[in-house]
Amino acid sequence: MQDGDWMKLKVDLHVHTKYSHDGFMEVSDVICGAKEAGLDCVAVTDHDTCEAVSDAVRVGKKAGMLVVPGIEVKSRHGDILGLGITDVVRRKMSAKDTVSKIHELGGVAVAAHPYSLVFHPTGVRGEVKSAGFDAIEVFNSRTYFSNGLAFRAAKNRGIPMVASSDAHLVGEIGNSYSVVDCKRDVSSILDEVRAGRTEVVCGLTGLGSIMSWYLQRLRRLVNPTK
Ligand SMILES: [Zn+2]
Question: Which residue among 89, 165, 202, 212 sits deepest, i.e. has the most Cβ atoms within 10 Å of its Cβ?
Answer without folding.
Answer: 165
